[in-house]
Amino acid sequence: MRIVLKPGLAPRLEGASDFRSFSIALDPRLQGDLRTAAAPVGHAEGDHVWVRPDAVRALCATAGDGAWSEGFAAMVSFAKAHGWVDPSGCIRAHVELLDEPAPVSVDAFRQAMRRFASGVCIVAAGEGDQRIGMTVSAFSSVSAEPPLVLVCLNRSAGSHDSLVNASSYAINILGAEQEEEAMLFAGQRGLHGADRFGLGWQQSDSGAPVLTSAHHTLVCQSEAQHPAGSHTVLIGRVIDIIPGRGTAALVNYDGAMGVTSHAA
Ligand SMILES: Cc1cc2nc3c(=O)[nH]c(=O)nc-3n(C[C@H](O)[C@H](O)[C@H](O)COP(=O)(O)O)c2cc1C
């Protein structure tokens, strides 16, 4: 059996009917103060803990059970014979560290993020046959004064380097009827680079491609880039806003695209 000690939680007894071993399983975060961590069940001495038998009984759901009491008494006698019981009756337990808490899996993270409804945009830069653009939903306002926004771009995207190096770009917020544009710029129609840009695109004064039918467009000057995990966080200073049509907005939610229930 072992007593599990974790920060902020009451001690827990595991494997209560295993009388062949006795230990303390300590969360690594409590390692620096074993004395305090062990206090609810006994007292620390060096790298081990003397555990009060009554503390073990209090943690054991089957302590009233005759078979358990017999097994526990036999375990204490065995420990006594080896000098592992002190004059006050406390049982010596060695301390083992619990494994680090399991990290959040990629799958669990993705599932959680699917629950966050977001808009859908095309971030686009360059002119003529140097135009480049990709669909993003990781877009957010950062600050109103000065007006800053961010988009998160996967470094593995073919458009990543050109967008990160562009001095200006346009963030075209898509409207309800623009799911096909979103798929096109997500690379789902087999077109790349400037081939994704059909009719309906114009250059802004700063030279960034603007989708004239977009829900709204923010033209940005590149302000900063921060590497973060698999992505680059691109921060842009908004230098122009091109109002769009008052349609409903395109949204990305639970792995599918949908539309808002009302128009702007
Ligand atoms: C609705 C939707 C939202 C997306 N959001 C992002 C995003 O925020 N960041 C990102 O890097 N990729 C995002 N993607 C994936 C990119 O659009 C896709 O990988 C990219 O267009 C591929 O570009 P490439 O052909 O230049 O490699 C999204 C795709 C879809 C369909």
Q: What is the CATH architecture term of the largest domain? A: Roll
Helical residue percent?
Answer: 10-25%
Number of helices: 6
Could you tell me the CATH topology label of the largest domain: Pnp Oxidase, Chain A
CATH class type of the largest domain: Mainly Beta
Beta-strand proportion: 35-45%
Radius of gyration from CA coordinates: 31 Å
CATH superfamily of the largest domain: Electron Transport, Fmn-binding Protein, Chain A
By secondary-structure content and strand pairing, the structural class works out as alpha+beta
Task: Describe the structure concisely.
With about 260 residues, the chain is an alpha+beta fold. The protein contains six helices and 18 strands.
Structure, explained:
This protein has 264 residues and is α+β, with helices and mostly antiparallel strands. It folds into 2 domains: 2-97, no CATH class; 106-263, Roll (Pnp Oxidase, Chain A). It has 6 helices and 18 strands. The protein has helices spanning 34-38, 53-59, 66-81, 106-114, 160-165, 179-184; strands spanning 2-5, 12-14, 23-26, 42-45, 48-51, 91-97, 118-119, 121-125, 132-136, 139-143, 148-154, 168-173, 201-203, 209-211, 216-228, 231-243, 248-253, 256-263. The strands form 4 sheets. The protein has a 7-stranded antiparallel β-sheet with strand order 9-8-12-15-16-11-10. A 6-stranded mixed β-sheet has the order 2-1-3-6-5-4. It has a 3-stranded antiparallel β-sheet with strand order 7-17-18, with no helix packed on it. A hairpin with a 2-residue loop joins strand 15 and strand 16 (231-243). The protein is elongated, with a radius of gyration of 31 Å. The mean pLDDT is 95. It binds flavin mononucleotide. The site of flavin mononucleotide has 19 residues, from strand 9 and strand 11. Residues 120, 134-138, 152-154, 157-159, 182, 185-187, 192, 252, 257 line the site of flavin mononucleotide. Belongs to the non-flavoprotein flavin reductase family.
